[in-house]
Structure formats: C-alpha cells, structure tokens
Amino acid sequence: MEEGNIKIKKSTMWQVLTGVFAVLFVISLFTGGFGIQSSTTGEVVKDTQDQPSKNNKPSGLVDAKQFTDDDAVLGDPDAPVTIIEWSDYECPFCSRFWSQTLPQIKEQYIDTGKVKLVYRDFPLSFHQNAQKAAEATECVREQGGDEAFWKMHDKIFENQQSLSEANLKIWANELGYDISECLDSGKYTSETQKDLSDGSTAGIRGTPGFLVNGQLVSGAQPFSAFEQVIESQL
Q1: pTM
Q2: Strands across the sheet with 115-121, in order?
C-alpha cells in the first residue's frame, strides 16, 4: 500500500514539475524570445528580417569617427565628447529620452561646450511613419540648416501621437518650410537608410541607441547613466 502511495506521489510531483517548466517556457517566449521590446528602456528590432545587417555587436569602444556623417549637430562642433544618437521618431522610448534625459544633458553638457550631439536616423520597419518623419527633418534641414532641423525634430516628438505624413508637411509649414515636393520625391530616403545601416554596423540593435565617444549606450537610460559615461571621458 505504501509503495503504491509513493508511486502516486512521484507521478503527481512529475506532473507538477512538467507544468511549471511549461509555464516558464511560455513566459520566456513572450518576455524575451521574440525581442519585441527590451524591458522598459528601448524598442528593439522586431525580428531577424527587420535587422539591417548581420553584423555582430562590437565589444568595447567603437571608432566613433567612422559613424559621423554630414548629420545635424547640436552643440559646439569642437566639444571633447561626442554623442551619436540613433533614433526613431515613432518610438515611445525615443520620446522618453527626448523629454526626460536630453534636457538635462543639454543643460549640463551641451550648453556648456563639453558635449555635442549628432543625430542619425534608425527608422524601424514596423513603425509606419518613422521613415517619412526622418526624411521630413532632412527636407527641413536642406532649407534651414541645423537650427531648422532641431526645431522640426522637437516638433515631431512634441506631437508624436498625431504623427502622419500629412501632419509632417503641416508642421514644416508652421516652421516656415514647404517640404511637400522634397518629401514626396523620396530625396532623402537613401540618406536615412544609410544612417540605419551605419547604426547596425556600430552595434545599434534598437532605439534609442548611442555612442558616447565610442562607448555604446542602449535604450532610454536615465541622465545618471549618461553622466557617468560623459564624466569618464572629460
């Protein structure tokens, strides 16, 4: 009789363990296996076919000079620290960085001549308006330079919830620029896609992603994370 009870208990225990492992497996799939977003700091490339290249993420410092193109710059061009940002105008985590972290970086480091910020595009394929938003800022920059670029950049993030191709043209007009012909022609499609390709080569796997004097920082990290890296470079 006791032997029978032991067999029943063992069988029941095995069923429980099997059920637990099954639940853990399902949880792992939905929290990390599909890579839809990385915890709470950034939005990653959704799956393999969305990744712009198969380059492996580099380790240690990256030569930032090879990833600076003729992109818009905020701050002193001769600042000792360069932050290269790869961003997506439709990404909520990029908006979080823009509204919560960038103002502190700007006040403490950019406005004081210690840091310059270089903006590069990383429009994720599953954001339907990100590509045109990236092109729109380039169209504005063509007419008004970097100052106009940053105004358009801010306007898009301010109005992210109503982002559309039609609104991009309206917002540009409000700033004094007619970008209809430029945007419709796709003039800056290749330019923004080169940004994305360069970002992938640099190790960017989602948005926002950064190189701080060649050191990779991923996600919408708090100001303290950037402060630590910046101070180590000054």
Answers
A1: 0.75
A2: 73-74, 115-121, 81-87, 209-212, 215-218
Name the residue range of residue 117's domain.
Answer: 43-233
Residues 22, 96 share a domain: no
Is the same domain home to 29 and 47?
no
The distance between the two most distant Cα atoms of the chain, rounded to a whole number of Å, is: 89
- The one-letter amino acid code at 74 reads L
Tell me which residue of 216, 52, 203, 211 sits closest to 131, measured CA to CA.
52
What residues contact residue 144 under an 8 Å CB cut-off, 6+ apart? Answer: 151, 175, 176, 177
Which pLDDT belongs to residue 70?
81
Instruction: Tell whether 4 and 99 lie within a shared domain.
Output: no
pLDDT digits (tens, 9 = 90+) for 29-47: 333 332 333 445 666 544 3
CA separation for the pair 111, 181 (Å, rounded) = 35
What are the 10-residue block averages of pLDDT along the chain, 234 residues in total?
A: 47 48 39 35 46 39 62 95 97 96 98 97 95 98 97 98 97 98 97 94 93 93 96 95
Output Rg (C-alpha) for the chain, integer angstroms: 23
pLDDT given for residue 141 in this prediction: 98
